[in-house]
Amino acid sequence: MTMRISNAWKLPSLLLLALSLSACSDLNRTEQRMLSGGAIGAGVGAVGTVMTGGCVTCGAVIGGAVGAGTGYVLDRVEKKK
Known about the structure:
By secondary structure, the chain is mostly helical. Helices cover 80% and strands 0% of the residues. It has three helices and no strands.
């Protein structure tokens, strides 16, 4: 069974996506690193659990948390240099 998004939902979905992305425009360097680390970690966690047959949501959440933490730590290490 395939899911199709009706035309009535396409414009509101695009507007919501654009609005959510604009909320990230005024982040400092630490927040940017945490956000990108979390996004990368969530992606890697989800793909890893798909490949191993685990819980995809759990892998994404754990990967996102680890990625955000890693982004924070790397930013702090760089600031100490």
